[in-house]
Every structure is written in structure tokens, then in C-alpha cells.
Amino acid sequence: MTLWYCAWTEPAREWRAYHELTAAGFKTYLPLHLHHFDTKRDHRSGYRIEVMFPRYLFTALDLAIDQWGAVVRTRGVAGLIRHAPDQPTALPPGVIENLIERTSPRGIVDDPGDNAPHSAPHAAQPPEWRNITSLGSAARVRLLCRLFGPDAAQRIVSEDETAHAA
Fold it and tell me: What pTM, to 2 d.p., does this model score?
């Protein structure tokens, strides 16, 4: 059965990991969002497209078929989120599918320039994900971590620090 898994990337390597995983034949999803910026110094404002979850992307795997170790060995990928060393932890069914349904052809979740109606919230979607694009990047990552359990944020940070210390 194919489920979505969360990979964390090396710093600022989300796009590299995305392209490498896609080229290797993995179904991969890197959600984007429009970030509003306003600079007081030069009196400019506007929007720029950014990665929705800095240092995270998603890949669909069937662990009976796919070798998840190949994902971890991909350039740009630092690891897969897992609760045990022998197998990654899948995201709850429907969460990533809902984000994908809310993604415009430009790859932006809840793109205000997209006139197509977005899907209704999926039953598996946490209620706070309905307005996830209005949150800052740190708050979005915290919401993502909560999907893996109450102690996931600390464990993910610890694994991330260990991976970068080596």
C-alpha cells in the first residue's frame, strides 16, 4: 500500500532533493505558498513563492516494494522521519492528498490567483491545516511535526542535529 512519508532535507536543498527523487522515479510533492513581503527600507512589497515547509518534502512509498533507503541516500535528503530505526513513519492518510487537491497548477497551495474551487477539507486533515498558508514557516513546521505524535518535534530536531553534526 502506497503511503506518504516525510523527508527532511539538507539546509536550503529542498529543490535539489525534489528533482533528484523525481528523477529516481519517486512520486514526490514539494508544496509551495505565496509569502507576502514588505520592506520598509526600500518601500517595496509583493509576493514571492517559497517552500511551504522549509527543509521538508513528501514522497509516496509502498514499503513492500520501494527501498526507502534509496530515498535517504538521495542527494539533498538528510533523512526520513521515523519512530523506529528500521522503518519510516507514514503520514496519516488524506493529509497530503488534501494539500495536493488544494495546489494550483503553479504548485502553490491555496493559490489566490487560481480560480478553480478547492476541495473541501478531508476528514483526516487537522482543522488547523485549513488556514495553514496564513501561518509563518516555523508554525507550519510545528503543525507538520504534530502529525507524528506529541514528542515528534523534539525527536525530529534531535535527529536533524545528529545528522548535521556528522
Answer: 0.80
